[in-house]
Design goal:
This is Disease resistance R13L4/SHOC-2-like LRR domain-containing protein. By secondary structure, the chain is mainly beta. Among the domains are: 68 residues, no CATH class; 146 residues, Leucine-rich repeat, LRR (right-handed beta-alpha superhelix); 246 residues, Leucine-rich repeat, LRR (right-handed beta-alpha superhelix) (Alpha-Beta Horseshoe). 2% of the residues lie in helices and 25% in strands. The strands form eight sheets. The protein has a 31-stranded parallel sheet, with no helix packed on it. It has a twelve-stranded parallel sheet with strand order 38-40-42-44-46-48-50-54-56-58-60-61, with no helix packed on it. Strand 51 and strand 52 form a beta hairpin. The chain is globular and about 105 Å long. The two termini are 65 Å apart.
């Protein structure tokens, strides 16, 4: 708008409407010269700057609408507009506190300041706007409590205070606003009970209290709101049962009670809500069967009952609800079969019955519905082969199909190619056999495919390489079809645990942008190729473990700036660790266990600022463990079964700060985990206990462990180990440590497993160790210990073998039985340790797995007894 426009010389102008005229620039101050204006509408333009102070000169103004611009502050002069009845400033960039001068607008009927950046409190003086009917302050950053003076605004029909930062309780006085039709207080920080007096608002059509921390039960009085269309109480902490009185809400279209703590059964009275379109009871603690009366809701469009503990047969109910567009029943205990013919659900778009106990054959008729977008059948007990009903491929909208974790078998059918818009396909954890059908090349929109954990075989077709994520692990694939260069779009490739053999497939080196590669547990052999350096520019997880690669590790990590996990364990590699690994500043995990690598302890790895897990186990490393100021982020270290020597100075562990404090995870970090625990856990653990491989899918990331066993380290155990207060496992067995067991170990209050066996330790077992309540597995055997064994409960639960070959120990009657406990005598001499006897336990973790979006690495684990199940999932 131009200041010198002839428009602003129209002294008698009363009505100015320039809405949606694509105006830009600032509102000229000369607008204030048009003193006869009664109506100004500048809404939905591109105006910037601030509302001019001169607007206060428009004393006759009754209507001011400047919504949908980018204006800054509200001038105090707006309080001069004593005749103003309508003020709409929503969807601007207004900042500052709620303008006190608005209190002077005594004739105001309509006030909307929604969707701005206003701060501060809602002033109590707002109660002076006695004529106001419409009040909308939602989507700002207003703080403080809802002023009780709102009860003075008896003509209010619309109140929107949602999406602010309001605190305190909902004023009971709101129940006196008898004309109220719309009440939105959602997405704030309100607490306390829902006032029962809200049930007196007989004209209320819209009630939204979602996203607060409201507690208590849903008042039965809310069943009196027979004009109510939308009832939204989701995402609070409400308890108790769903009141049967809600069945009286005869006008209700939406009932949203999800994400609370409601218990009991779904009341059968909800079947009386004949107009109901949307029923959402997701994520509560509801039990029992879905009442048969729900089948009366024949207008229902959305039924969302997932994540409860509902049981029984729901097929009879579903058969009558053919207008549903969304069925969400996931994570319940529902049984029986699906309706035999679902082709009549003409409007169905989303169907999710995952995580139940549904039985029977594949619901072929479901896939004749052209409106279908997503079908999630995973984690049930469906059986038999799969085949898709005929539907025109040009009409199909199917984007997401998940049939994982069932008992489907037979080949993947050619008819799967009928869904050209399919973007995500998960058939994992079934019993599918045969090759991947060539017809799947028609799925040109496919970005994510998971066929893992089946019995598929043959060649991996080249068209899969145009997908972003390909998971084919745990099958019997044996070869690759060479892809064309146009198809190399893949970012994550999971080929572990198949039957691939021969040299590293060089075609993989041509993939630009590859972020994750897992070829572990195959039969690959030969040298690791130099061309891998091309991948390391972008890759952040590389797992070549459990193959037969030989030769040296190529020095190709100079540009591997993104690499966070590197696993080449269980191969036949030799030589030294390449120094170029020092360039990997984001490296969190290094696992080279069970190779023939040599060299001194790579203390230079301590300079890596993110290193959490270091596994050098079962190689030919040698020499002293150099003192270093690094390893501050180390959580797990396993250097067992090498040839390390020398002593550990008293301050050796002083800088290992990550083991002294527990990494905290915020609520948001927990919620960001996408259908898994990857942010809080390392995945895919292969553990060794007395030579027996044991596999665990997860181990918690707050696990801290040190394993220096099976070396030739001598001298005293460093006192600085007592500072590692988050340590869960300590294994120093099969070394040559001498001296006493440090009493400072009693400060390791989180310690669960301790192995000091097969050393030359002397003195007594510190009595203080008996106070470590989590210490459930320990081994002191084959040392030179003497004296009374601690009497703590945890000691009494140990096996006798944990104290063997310490003949001067006594107090073992309750552990070993009197027949097996020698009486201590002064003449008894400690026997030499038995070098040939099998160590009591050892532990190792191998393999890594990836979950989209969050690093999920390899970690070392252990197991002594079943007491350790809580670490593994």
């Amino acid at each position: 708008m131009k200041t010198n426009s002839s428009l602003f010389r129209l002294q008698y102008l009363r009505h100015l409407s320039l809405t949606e005229c694509n105006l830009n620039g600032e509102i000229p101050s000369s607008l204030g010269n048009l003193s006869r204006l009664t109506h100004v509408d500048l809404g939905y333009n591109n105006l910037v700057g601030e509302i001019p102070v001169s607007v206060g000169n428009l004393k006759q103004l009754r209507y001011l609408n400047v919504w949908g611009n980018s204006l800054g502050k509200i001038p105090a002069s707006i309080g001069n507009l004593s005749h103003l009845r309508y003020l709409n400033l929503k969807y601007n960039h207004l900042v500052g506190e709620f303008p006190a001068s608005i209190d002077n607008l005594s004739n105001l009927r309509y006030l909307s300041l929604a969707a701005n950046g206003l701060t501060g409190e809602i002033p109590t003086s707002i109660g002076s706007l006695s004529h106001i009917r419409y009040l909308s302050l939602g989507a700002n950053s207003l703080r403080g409590e809802i002023p009780s003076s709102l009860e003075n605004l008896s003509r209010l029909t619309h109140v929107d205070l949602g999406s602010n930062k309001l605190v305190g309780e909902i004023p009971t006085s709101i129940g006196s606003l008898s004309h109220l039709e719309y009440l939105s207080l959602g997405d704030n920080h309100l607490k306390g009970d829902i006032p029962a007096l809200i049930g007196n608002l007989n004209n209320l059509r819209y009630l939204d209290l979602w996203g607060n921390t409201l507690t208590g039960e849903i008042p039965t009085s809310l069943g009196n709101l027979n004009q109510l269309n939308n009832f939204i109480l989701a995402s609070n902490e409400l308890t108790g049962e769903i009141p049967s009185s809600l069945g009286n809400l005869s006008s209700l279209l939406l009932l949203e009670l999800s994400y609370n703590r409601l218990v009991g059964k779904i009341p059968s009275s909800l079947g009386n809500l004949a107009r109901l379109l949307d029923l959402r009871l997701l994520a509560n603690h509801l039990i029992g069967e879905v009442p048969d009366s729900i089948r009366n809701l024949d207008k229902l469009r959305v039924m969302s009952l997932g994540n409860n503990s509902l049981s029984g047969d729901i097929s009879f109910i579903l058969a009558n609800l053919t207008k549903l567009s969304e069925i969400s029943l996931y994570s319940n205990n529902l049984t029986s079969t699906l309706p035999s013919d679902m082709s009549g659900f003409h409007y169905l778009e989303r169907f999710d019955v995952s995580g139940n106990s549904f039985l029977g054959p594949f619901p072929k008729s479901l896939f004749s519905i052209p409106s279908l977008i997503s079908v999630l059948l995973q984690e049930n007990q469906f059986t038999g082969p799969i085949e898709f009903a005929y539907t025109s491929s040009s009409l199909s909208k199917l984007d997401f199909l998940n049939l994982s974790s069932n008992q489907f078998h037979g080949p993947i059918p050619e008819s799967i190619s009928k869904f050209p818009k399919l973007g995500r396909l998960d058939l994992s954890h079934n019993n599918f056999t045969g090759p991947i059908p060539r017809s799947m090349s028609k799925l040109v929109s496919l970005n994510y495919i998971d066929l893992s954990n089946n019995m598929l075989e043959g060649e991996v077709p080249g068209f899969l390489w145009r997908c972003r994520m390909v998971l084919l692990s745990h099958n019997s694939f044996s070869s690759f079809e060479n892809p064309s260069s146009q198809e190399l779009l893949i970012q994550e490739l999971h080929l572990n645990s198949n039957s691939f053999r021969g040299p590293f497939p060089l075609s993989i080196c041509n993939i630009k942008g590859l972020r994750f590669l897992d070829l572990s547990n195959n039969l690959f052999s030969g040298w690791i190729p130099q061309c891998l350096r091309n991948l390391l520019v972008s890759i952040y997880e590389l797992n070549l473990g459990s193959n037969s690669f030989s030769g040296t590790i190529p020095d190709i990590f100079a540009n591997a700036a993104s690499l966070s996990s590197f696993d080449i364990s269980r191969n036949q590699l030799e030589g030294n660790l390449p120094n170029s690994l020092m360039n990997c500043e984001y490296l969190e995990l290094v696992n080279v266990e069970s190779n023939r690598l040599k060299g001194k302890f790579p203390s230079w790895l301590g300079s890596l600022p993110s290193l959490n897990v270091l596994i050098l186990r079962s190689n030919e490393f040698y020499g002293p463990l150099c003192v270093s100021n690094g390893f501050q982020r180390l959580r797990v270290i396993d250097i067992s079964d090498n040839d390390f020597t020398g002593t550990l100075p008293p301050h050796y562990f002083s800088n290992w700060s990550e083991m002294t404090t527990l990494t905290e995870y915020s609520t948001i970090e927990y919620m960001l985990v996408f259908a898994n625990l990857s942010a809080l856990t390392y995945r895919s653990m292969e553990l060794v206990n007395k030579g027996v491989d044991m596999r665990f899918e997860r181990i918690r990331r707050d696990f801290r462990a040190i394993d220096f066993s099976g070396n030739r380290i001598s001298g005293k155990i460093p006192e600085s180990i007592g500072s590692l207060k988050e340590l869960r496992l300590l294994n120093l067995s099969r070394n040559a440590f001498t001296g006493n067991i440090p009493r400072i170990l009693a400060k390791l209050t989180k310690l669960e497993t301790l192995d000091l066996s097969s050393n030359k330790l002397s003195g007594q077992i510190p009595q203080e160790l008996g106070e470590l309540s989590f210490l459930s597995s320990m081994n002191f055997s084959h040392n030179l210990l003497h004296g009374l064994v601690p009497r703590g409960t945890q000691f009494q639960r140990q096996n006798c073998s944990s104290f063997l070959d310490n003949p001067r120990l006594y107090g073992l009657e309750d552990i070993c039985g009197k027949r097996h406990v020698p009486k201590p005598t002064p003449q008894q001499q400690p026997e030499e340790e038995s070098e040939s006897e099998e160590p009591m336990f050892n532990w190792i973790a191998a393999a890594i797995a990836y979950v989209p979006g969050i690093f999920c690495g390899l970690v070392i684990g252990h197991i002594f007894t079943s007491h350790y199940y809580e670490w593994f999932h």
